[in-house]
From TrEMBL:
Residues 48-383 form the Leucine-binding protein domain. It comes from Plantactinospora mayteni. This is Branched-chain amino acid ABC transporter. The keyword DNA-binding does not apply. Belongs to the leucine-binding protein family. InterPro entries: BCAA_transport (IPR051010), Leu-bd (IPR028081), Peripla_BP_I (IPR028082). Signal peptide: none annotated. Pfam families: Peripla_BP_6.
Length: 405
């Protein structure tokens, strides 16, 4: 099997800029520009963050992981408190289970913004739940940081001024997949994409990326909406075209289900995933034989070697992983977007010296920083998408994600 050694090189100047910014921003969380302050006490105030997460339903394989990351980072920051102006504030989380239902996610957003008076909203691991939260957050003028992956979460920007997205843009993931596929000499590719906004983004991005790489997209089929549907009859519509490779574009648990169906129908070619596949479910005992040898494009945080990084962001990442292992036994390698979301809100509050929603939005929209999951570069004209050079290529070896060099 050819190794994709020529996959995306790191942009050193860009990484250097992000690393310097991360050092400045993260180190600044330990000081206050408004004078000396003490630890949190009876007179301290709160920074209130509301979260609507998929703790049950199909999205729970992502939501539960984010809840863990959310609690770990909040506990860490609350050890010293968050300096905002001349006060140290404690972070108070208000977490709701949206059960993977958009209607419930919208209801949560309304309640959190009006009754709980949260300073910021985070969550929505699925595109549909995030899309349901967006109009509420925009109407109530409360910053919302989404964990979902879809092109239309932050655009049109004029109607998404309070909305931010952490996941990689579909075009960046698709371009990396196309380069990987091309480097392996594969010329005929099939595509299986989940329904909804995430799948829509994938179909558009993969179609364009494969065309630019002179690779034939022989068939593009949408997967059933229900996880317990008959995936085998759907995947046969792709495999009957005898592709060299199949790209599965969707979030877990649908990614693993699709891979199993491919193998059950006799497909022996290579399988490629987008970043949404990375969750413990994809590498479960049931899925393990089907996904062995599969590839994924995912933020580099999936790589355990990042623990040797001694930069401020690297040390912060190492501390997060150690705390995660201590609490949950093992680190699955998922991208901990919830951790980054909390830190982004904290940085915005510190820089703006206020928890006012409008000031938080303004300072969120001007952050360049390296997080736990990857690097972000927000600007007034760009509210979403992890930096492309944060992405890496991984393959499954003996039931674990291993970085391809």
């Amino acid at each position: 099997m050819a190794g994709p050694a020529a996959v995306e090189a790191w942009t050193l100047s860009r990484r250097g800029l992000l690393g310097a910014a991360a050092t400045t921003l993260l180190a600044a969380c330990g000081r206050d520009d408004g004078g000396p302050v003490g630890p949190p006490g009876p007179g301290s105030r709160e920074l209130v963050i509301g979260a609507s997460l998929e703790l049950t339903g199909p999205g729970q394989v992502l939501g539960v992981l984010q809840e863990r990351a959310l609690q770990i980072t909040t506990d860490k920051l609350n050890e010293q408190g968050v300096p905002v102006g001349n006060l140290r504030r404690t972070i108070r989380l208000v977490v709701r289970d949206n059960a993977s239902e958009p209607r419930l996610a919208a209801q949560h957003a309304t309640e959190l913004a009006t009754r709980e008076n949260v300073h910021a909203l985070i969550g929505g691991c699925l595109a549909e739940t995030s899309l349901a939260i967006i109009p509420i957050a925009q109407q109530q003028q409360v910053p919302f940081i989404s964990f979902a992956a879809a092109d239309n979460l932050t655009v049109p920007l004029a109607q998404r001024t309070y909305i931010f997205k952490l996941t990689p843009d579909a075009r960046d993931v698709a371009r990396a997949l196309a380069r990987l596929i091309s480097s392996q000499g594969l010329k005929q590719v099939g595509l299986l994409a989940t329904p909804g906004a995430h799948g829509d983004s994938g179909v558009r991005a993969i179609t364009a990326a494969l065309k630019a790489s002179d690779i034939d997209l022989v068939k593009a089929i949408r997967l059933p909406r229900a996880e317990n549907a008959d995936y085998r009859s759907t995947v046969r519509k792709v495999t009957q075209s005898d592709p060299d490779a199949v790209v599965v574009w969707g979030t877990a648990p649908f990614s693993g289900t699709a891979a199993r169906a491919l193998r059950q129908t006799g497909y022996q070619g290579r399988i490629f995933f987008d970043a949404g596949a990375v969750a413990e479910d994809t590498l479960s005992e049931e899925n393990a034989p089907a996904v062995e040898g599969a590839y994924v494009v995912h933020p580099g945080s999936l790589n355990s070697s990042s623990l040797t990084n001694t930069s401020t962001a690297g040390l912060d990442r190492r501390d997060f992983v150690y705390r995660y292992i201590h609490l949950h036994g093992s680190f699955s390698g998922f991208a901990p977007y919830a951790s980054d979301a909390v830190r982004l809100v904290v940085n915005a509050a510190r820089l703006g010296k206020s928890v006012d929603r409008g000031r938080l939005r303004a300072y969120l929209g001007n952050q360049i920083t390296e997080g736990i999951a990857g690097a972000y570069s927000f600007a007034p004209i760009r509210h979403g998408g992890m930096e492309p050079d944060s992405l890496g290529v991984f393959t499954v070896v003996s039931g674990a994600w291993i970085r391809v060099s």
